[in-house]
């Protein structure tokens, strides 16, 4: 059996194949990041892979992982942690940045531009000489425009400012606080600062629900997110030339506001 893993900040997906390439099982597991220099992220990463391992119906012979937060070269420490968590020898484990994995999946035999919008956002293409051109992917603390984390943080900022000014934040606040399981700053503080950073992006679903309920502020945030993703695509086109363009990632499933606006902006 051969194990393939796509690990994002919020969730991981895995598939188990036999030597003929036939699929035997697939599933989901907790997410993590390849930034294992941080002790908290290291523990989260190992726990996610151990949970994944426990869900497998059969032990794999080899494993290949696409990991958010991983670099574009082999990291022996990351390989060793993957192997230890999956119960394999390091020689039987390989990994790459999740963006490289996604790009090969989208364009296995032709050039193309890929924009990935999940918990974070990043864009990638391959230049004529085969080198990777990566745009964005700087993390939620710096940018990650158009990602689920970006959408959630802007919604929180808007609601908290409205409450500071004496308002209630409208439908957007109602949906956010319902997702947080509490009202006010204490609920926000616990979710944003006392948990794993990947949890922030989960609040984007509440923004989408507010938009569906007719909240204009929520719709505006989703439209702004689409503008950010379109910016990444335009940079790829400007720097590497025209090519087929693919958008992927969970942020695109938040609602029609993002998909429809991208279609208009990049027709």
Short description:
With 267 residues, the protein is of the alpha/beta class. The chain has helices at 39-55, 76-86, 98-106, 148-164, 170-180, 185-193, 204-212, 216-240, 256-265; strands spanning 2-7, 11-17, 23-30, 62-67, 93-97, 113-117, 121-126, 132-136, 245-248.
Order of helices and strands: EEEHEHEHEEEHHHHHEH
Residues in helix, %? 40-55%
Total beta strand runs? 9
Main beta sheet, described? 5 strands, mixed
What gap, in angstroms, lies between the N and C termini?
Answer: 43 Å
Based on the structure, what is the oligomeric state of the protein chains? single chain
SS class? alpha/beta
Beta-strand fraction estimate: 15-25%
Strand order of the largest sheet: 3-2-1-4-5
Poorly predicted residue ranges: none
Shape: globular
Average residue pLDDT: 93
Instruction: Kindly provide the radius of gyration, computed on alpha-carbon positions and rounded to a whole number of angstroms.
Output: 19 Å
Number of helices: 9
């Amino acid at each position: 059996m051969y194990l393939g893993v796509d690990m994002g900040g919020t969730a991981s997906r895995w598939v188990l194949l036999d030597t003929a390439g036939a699929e035997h099982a697939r599933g989901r597991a907790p997410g993590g990041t390849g930034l294992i220099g941080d002790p908290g992220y290291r523990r989260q990463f190992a726990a996610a892979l151990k949970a994944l391992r426990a869900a497998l119906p059969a032990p794999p012979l080899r494993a290949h992982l696409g990991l958010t937060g991983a670099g574009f070269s082999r990291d022996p420490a990351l390989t060793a942690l993957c192997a230890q968590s999956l119960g394999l020898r390091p020689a039987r484990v390989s990994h790459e940045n999740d963006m490289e994995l996604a790009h090969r999946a989208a364009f296995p035999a032709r050039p193309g531009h890929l924009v990935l919008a999940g918990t974070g956002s990043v864009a990638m293409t391959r230049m004529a000489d085969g080198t990777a051109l990566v745009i964005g992917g700087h993390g939620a603390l710096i940018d990650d425009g158009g990602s689920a984390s970006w959408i959630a943080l802007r919604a929180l900022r808007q609601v908290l400012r409205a409450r500071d000014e004496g308002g209630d934040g409208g439908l957007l606040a109602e949906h956010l606080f319902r997702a947080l399981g509490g009202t006010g700053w204490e609920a926000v503080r616990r979710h944003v600062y006392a948990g794993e950073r990947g949890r922030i992006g989960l609040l984007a679903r509440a923004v989408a629900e507010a938009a569906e309920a007719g909240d204009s502020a929520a719709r505006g945030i989703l439209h702004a997110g689409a503008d950010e993703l379109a910016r990444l695509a335009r940079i790829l086109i400007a720097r590497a030339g025209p090519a087929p363009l693919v958008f992927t990632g969970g942020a695109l499933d938040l609602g029609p506001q993002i998909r429809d606006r991208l279609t208009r902006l990049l027709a």
